[in-house]
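Hey L., structure's done. Input below.
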Amino acid sequence: MDYRLFGPGTTVWFPVFVPGALFFLGDCHAVQGDGEIVGTGVETTFEVVVRLSVEKKKRIAWPRAETSEDVITVGNARPLDQALQHATTEMLDLLLNDYKLTKVAASHLLGQVVRYDIGNVFDPAYTVACRVAKKWLPGRPAV
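Output:
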């Protein structure tokens, strides 16, 4: 699921579908082009601090993230259009439930401001990130 915006200060939420699930953090990249088209970024060692918690009431189907500037949802599938669909559907859900937008408002917002990034096209499953800048969102999310 390599994606270049998952860097320092990013908060990421992963769905958990089974009791007792484990967490694995993979390799770190100093830099990586969109798509990771040669199969790797610039691999390097990192010192990473990770804080894990379980939010039992948060129901998500695909990974979500937040940076200082964006909210992000991630789809991972093959073919590429299915990964894009997963990421977009998750973003629509985020806008409806976390920001309390109507379906019409969320659809119009996405139609004008959404940004897609290709995280990975090398591995068997492709990664697409759906990104919306926080400057376009109404206030803080409703929790």
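The chain has one domain: 11-15+25-136. The longest helix spans residues 80-97.

-- N.
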